Amino acid sequence: MPWLSLWAQGTTVTLPSWIQWMIVWADPQFTDARLLGGFFGGFMTWSKLLGLFCLISWLGTRFFNLFLRSQQSRSGQSVVLNLPVIGLLLFVGIAILTAFLSIVQQAAVFPIPLIAGYPIPALLVGIEFLLGFLALEAVMWSSYRRPQGGSASQRGLALGVHAALAAGVFVIYKAFEFNRNVRGLKGSIASQDWQLILTDGLRYGATYAGLVVLAYFALGMFKEALSVRWRRLYSIAWQTVLDAVRRMWAPWVVLVLFVLFLAFTNWFLGGPGTRTPELARRYIETLSWVSSLLLSLMILLLAPMSLPTDIRTQVIYTITTKPVNRLELIWGRLIGYMGLITAVLLVMGLVSMFFVERVVNSRISTTREQAVASREVGKLDDARRSEEQAAQLENKMSARVPVFGFLSFTDSRGKARRKGIDVGQEQKLRSHIEGASASKASWRFGQAPQKEGRTLTAENVLPIERLLKPGTLEAVEDSLFRARYDQAQIKMNLEAPNLKGSERRRLEDRLTKVDSEVKRIQAELEPIQKQERDLREQIQKLEGAGKSADLTSLRAERDKLHSPPIPVEMVFNVFRTSKGELGEAVRASMVVSNPLRPDLELHRSVFPVIEYYTIRRFFPSRMLVGSMGQLAIEIQCITPSQFIGMSEKDLYVLSNQGSFRTNYIAGLTGVWLQALVITSVGLFAGTFLSWSVAFLLTLAVFVFGQLAIGFLDQFNQMGVVGGGPFESLIRLLTHENLQSNLASTPAVMAAKSFDLFLTPILTRLIYVIPNISALDVSNQVALGFAVTTPTLIGQVLLGLGYALPLTAFAYYIFKNREIAA
Amino acid sequence: MSTGSSPKSTAQTSRTRQLVYALGIVLIFGAMWPYTEWLQRRKVDADLGEASIGQIDGGSFLLKLAMIGGFRGVVADVLWNDSIELQKQQEWDKLKEKVDFITKLQPHFLSVWTFQGWNLAYNVAVEWDDPADKYTWIKNGITFLRQGVEKNRRSPDLIWDTAWTYYHKIGFSDEAIILRRLFYDDRDLEGLNFKIDPITQEPRDDNFLVSKGWYTRAIRLVDEGVQRMDSRLEGEVQYVDKMPDRKGRPGDLNFRVMPAHAQTRYALSLEKMSVKDLTPTFGDVAQAEWDHANRDWKEFGEYEFPAFNNPDEKIQLDLSTDKERFKSPELSDNQRYWVNRWADQMNYRYWKDKTDAEREMTGVLARQDFYEGTVALKEARFRDSVTKYQEGINRWQDLLERHTVYRDDDLNKRDTGEIVRRYVFALKQVGETPPDDLPFKELYEGVKNEPFRDPFDQLDMMKLKEAPKSAAAGSR
User: Fold this and answer.
1) Which of these ranges, A35-44, A175-184, A346-355, B170-179, has the smallest mean pLDDT?
2) Contact A427 B88 (CB under 8 A)
3) CA-CA distance, B476 to B22, in Å (whole number)?
4) Domain at A652, CATH number
């Protein structure tokens, strides 16, 4: 990207904000993550990409219509080759030729002469560019009789597109000018620079043009959506459900298959062989995968068939002749299918939830029974282990809400480090700290590390109001601290010189309010403190006297005055440099401190590290008093010459632990959204393809979206070793490895040219194929973490981001299709 | 649908067409019947049906059905790649899940069983820090191998791998003392028959005994003449790179020696704290086990191996301990050469003489004295320690005079030297100097400066929970 590098040289240059905005809106690779917690940034990228799709589809449709028209114009004779097709073939041919020539040039097989000082491939690119541009112009201005070919709105759109292209060039030109002015450059712009301004300007302009087309279609959709009536939607939806249930028996088949699967889970899930702490995860992941698969299969068969069947059986005439809007036809079906899916999913979800609960709870109770039995025969180690395993499993059957901190390291010489020691793990998942040295890992909550430029989010600040129980000693003390911070802040502001009169009055008003607040809290605090003191003294006395009978009730009373201790959970790696004492665990220490209150006594605890187990420790809630959500937790390894390893997400404070059931149901949203996307794809495909082809297309999207997204991503980032599809084929056939350079034989060069032409198209697939696997949140449920509302909102937006445009495309295709022909 | 014909004729044609289809279906099914019959017979002949190769597995069958034929290999490949990736990500449980899946798809692909069984028991187990977790993964590995055996009953390889994992991974790990305790305590609540000796079908509390059963099972299978690649159908297949069984080929000394080794290990482990917090066993029980070991070694020594360069000549290792038979003219020079070479290679003379010595009551009593001496030493009862060591060393001297091969072996020199070193140490604690005629003086000199700790003896390796009572150490 030449422009980026241009600016990078002049680091001091800050473009005017309007240009910055225009650039952010122009390039699909830039976005703004600051607004609305990143949601707006996502929306921006989404609309830019969607705009480009709209542009391509609009041009494509016009091209297609042109092709159809030139076929029809030959008085009934349909000819395959006509001007548009010849043009397209020529275009592709020249592109491949260009790719081939540039490959030849790279391989330096034979010299390619220059023409007028330019290499032939560059010239060809120029010609291609010009040809393409002319062709697009022709397509844009071509007018044909039907449908709406030459309507005024279409002409307006074409004009808008041109204006957008011009705007792109203008923005780049302005930015360039600004840059030159800042640098003090004078004189006319060089021809290479013009070239740059033009190409980049057109690229930016294309995005703007896309946005224009998007706005045009969105407006059309909006108008159409206004005339959508719920009653018609409902009746179409209901008809769809009836069709699916009566004709296909679809939900019954799916449910029967699901029950069959449940009946034989042991065949697939390995039954008793699964380790106790892993049981919940395994069952939940598998069951939600099976639910998703079965639902997807159902919808794969239903959705792409729906419209083509109606068209084939001519049922569609009856519907389209009624005053039914075509958007209603699409949305009605979507709603119908989604209603069906919701019902089936709820049944499957509830059944599997109870099933998982039954399996897991029975395992928990048998493990606990084992623990009791072991304890009775004096096998304390066994008992401890069984209890630990049951606790691990129980923990996973809940909805934990973690608060993550920022991790930094200190090495054995006390120097601050971003990373710990690398002990040679293949994927450097975790960094290690050395035992019995100054080396430590520190997590900071509520305060972003300054050097690393990472931003603090709500996920990093400890939610004090949730962690401290209202009305307890700590909660009241904390509010007192907050009030005093306010007090100090206002006083400081008041001392500022040349303060305006009105501002001063406002501050003074606030100060009196805060002062009275402080007094009120103090009044509230004193009796609690006194009560606590009394209880403590009584307990001490009784302890001294050795009376244990009343102690428990007194202690319980005292505990009621305090907030419960705060849980911290962690998972660590152990790396041993020697075997150490046989059978002895490596030990770690945890030090909790409140950075805002150095006067507070640190909380220290020591514990054995059991590798890959979730260790749960507590610190007293008093550490949070006056912390404003900040906290520091330091972990050290105590055992000499051993190491423990950690990554940032390996330690977190638990802010809440919700119920498994709600979480499980929330987790089903993922499956529901997957079904939504597939339904939309199916309906979309059904609008212009026969049902078998539509089915295959939907299936392909489903398979790609589930399995191949990772590969496509790699491909997109050019991370695939061994070249594109054709080169890979040659390597496969000649048993060449991925790294070796292939000899420049004609076959290899031809393959590389095809790859060079195809790869950019293939890499764009990542924007087309819906990332279905990303919608899944079952992993979170399976690990016992809560699916929080922001996560859910994000997932729903993602799902809608795929589904809405697909239905819109479907609507436009369906609208322009001549069904009665 | 032709538009020109009348509705009636349309109905007629469609009726005819339906009839033709129905007839076609019936015909094809009819043709399939004799074919399936023939195929079934062929499978029985070739011993290839699921039922004859091993246990029928519903899940596996369904999965194979779902992956319609040829895609099986591709799916297995993808799963294998995934499993390697998961191992890098330290997702051990998911790794196992994937591997289980592969074996469901291709249950008769032996390399998967062999490789992943080893992978789970060795590579995954070592990644876990707590010995109890290590044990779980070793058990997972062994169970995996045993599932492989269930599905491939004609493979001595998998049986031998199972035996080896019981024997070596549990018995020779750094944490062997703890692992053996976990094995001892294992109540097998999953119902895996994990502690069942496959020969006697009885539960055993010692991994060496279970491993011996599995070794024996492998040997018996080979002796029955079973070879996995032997089935007639596979015989007809032209393999590019046919993989024969790894284990149990003629002349595989290491294959046949293992039952004897396992039994010897068991007897040896009885006489020390090789299981955490479990006192040793001496007396008749120990003697009987040594006797057993001795018989196993003799059995191994009398097995007739084909000579390497001339399979018609039979080699018995035991001849190396029988001078008269060794010199008899019936033996060719070549036979003598191989007897000597292989006996050296297997250290046969040493093992036979060792078991011979240890099975004597004197040997058992000496061992008991050594154990009690060491316990007394650890508990700082030096006088008792000296007495016990003295008694033991006297017995030991008496015994070794009769077993010179054992006496002169380096392994014994180190062990005996170490005992004398401890004896001398105890002597010094009670203020006495070692006598001039200290038995095994030259062995003591050899180890004086490098004390030896037995990695498989709790007394040497770990703190004791509570000192074992000397009285309890008697014969039981």
Assistant:
1) A35-44
2) yes
3) 79
4) 2.60.120.260
**Any idea what DSSP says for residue B196?**
B
Q: Provide the token pair at A587.
A: 């030990």
- Segment A709-733, tens digit of pLDDT: 877 777 777 666 778 888 888 888 8
- pLDDT tens-digit series, residues B313-349: 999 999 999 888 899 888 999 999 999 999 999 999 9
Q: How high is the mean pLDDT of chain A?
A: 85
Question: Where do the structural domains in chain B lie, given as residue ranges?
Answer: 362-473
Confidence grade of residue A131 (pLDDT, cut at 50, 70, 90): confident
The pLDDT, as a whole number, for residue B230 is: 45
What are the E-state strand segments in B259-378? 305-306, 314-315
From A270, A281, A611, residue closest to B128, measured CB to CB? A611
Q: What are phi and psi of B187, to 5 degrees?
A: -95, 5
Secondary structure E strands in A551-600: 566-570, 573-576, 586-593
Q: Residues A556, A609: one domain?
A: no
What pLDDT, in 10s, does the model give residues B289-318? 999 999 999 999 999 999 988 889 999 999
Same domain, A670 and A714: yes
Q: Does residue A182 share a domain with residue A156?
A: yes
Neighboring chain A residues of B178 at a CB cutoff of 8 Å: 582-583
Of A638, A657, A676, the last residue of a domain is A657
Residue written as tokens 């449940």?
Answer: A262
Instruction: State how far the Cα of A134 lies from the Cα of A137, in Å rounded to an integer.
Output: 5
Residues A43 and A140 in one domain: yes
**A393 and A404, same domain (yes or no):** no
Which tokens in the block code for residue A316?
């569609």
In A, minimum Cα distance to B93 occurs at A278
Chain length of chain B: 476
CA angle A56, A59, A64 (to 5 degrees): 115
Measured between beta carbons, the chain A residues lying within 8 angstroms of B128 are 611-612
Question: Which residues in chain A are closer than 8 Å to B97, comparing Cβ atoms?
Answer: 270, 282
Tell me the two tokens of residue A652.
């977190």
Contacts of A366 in chain B (CB under 8 A): 189
Distance CA A806, CA A814 (A): 12
Task: Verify that A435 and A478 share a domain, yes or no.
Answer: no
* Total domains, chain A: 4
The tokens describing B360, both together, are: 């004597």
- Best of A269, A276, A381, A732 to disrupt the B interface (most B CBs within 10 Å) is A381
Cβ atoms B149, B162 nearer than 8 A: yes
A393, A407: one domain = no
* E strand or H helix at A407: strand A406-410
Amino acid at B260: A
- Residue ending a domain, among A226, A260, A290, is A226
Q: Which two tokens stand for residue A479?
A: 């509010």
Contact call for A282 and B93, based on CB within 8 A: yes
Residue B205's identity, in one-letter code, is D
- Map residue A362 onto helix, strand or coil: helix
The chain B residue lying nearest A579, using CA atoms, is B174
| Rounded Cα distance, A616 and A186, in Å | 67
CB contact under 8 A, A612 and B92: yes
Average pLDDT of the segment spanning B373-395: 94
Q: Where do runs of H (alpha helix) occur along A400-500?
A: 464-467, 473-494
Nearest to A295 by CA among A769, A654, A778, A781: A778
Are A584 and A549 within one domain?
no
What ipTM was assigned to the predicted interfaces of this complex? 0.81
Beta strand pairing status for B305-306 and A431-434?
unpaired
Return the residue matching tokens 């203008």: A170
Range of the domain at A781: 227-398+659-821
A interface residues, B as partner, C-beta within 8 Å: 264, 267-268, 270, 272-275, 278, 281-282, 366, 370, 379, 381-382, 385, 426-427, 429, 573-574, 576, 579, 581-583, 585-586, 609-612
